[in-house]
Amino acid sequence: MTEPVKGPASYFPSIEKKYGHPIAHWKDLIRASPLTKHGELVTWLKTEHGLGHGHANALVAHTLAESR
Q: By its UniProt entry, which InterPro entries does this protein fall under (predicted)?
């Protein structure tokens, strides 16, 4: 039996369903952005791409954690 997905990645299925793009699309946008701070990236995803706060926060947290 597999462990349930926890943390930011638990939002990924609903993000893909709601916004119609794979997670890789959002991560690529985040990495290509000139912004580097978590809060700035969350605000940018919300205002420029229409994501909800929880979804934007999950994507940014997961993407920034990968680059550390």
A: DUF4287
Angle at 45 between CA 14 and CA 17, to 5 degrees: 20
Q: In Å, what is the CA distance from 35 to each residue of 5, 31, 56?
A: 28, 9, 14
Q: Which amino acid type is present at position 26? A: W
- CB count within 10 Å of CB 38 equals 13
CA quadruple 25, 26, 29, 33: dihedral, nearest 10 = -170
**What's the CA gap between 37 and 18, in Å, rounded?**
25
- Decide if 41 contacts 48 (C-beta within 8 A): no
Threshold 0.85, pTM exceeds:
yes
Q: Is the dihedral of CA 18, 63, 32, 56 positive or negative?
A: positive
Amino acid in position 67: S
